[in-house]
């Protein structure tokens, strides 16, 4: 989990910040990400979910920090496997 802080003592995020970030991620034509949950925690926001690559995770973080530079962001975005399985799954 990565944490990027703005200035210490930053103002608490406003009431619409979570929705604004969610909309930014959803409506951005290059990202169009609907699988990320945005949650406010104290004076920061937490981005949670799973994406298919580290590059996509970094692009999401870059986009949020670029649009909301004053907001501390904690990233809890994991990576999912996008390749086909290499073994046969045996069900019992």
TrEMBL record:
Task: Give the highest taxon in the source lineage.
Answer: Bacteria
Q: Can you name this protein?
A: BON domain-containing protein
Instruction: Report the source organism.
Output: Plantactinospora solaniradicis
User: What taxonomic classification does the UniProt entry list for its organism?
Assistant: Bacteria, Bacillati, Actinomycetota, Actinomycetes, Micromonosporales
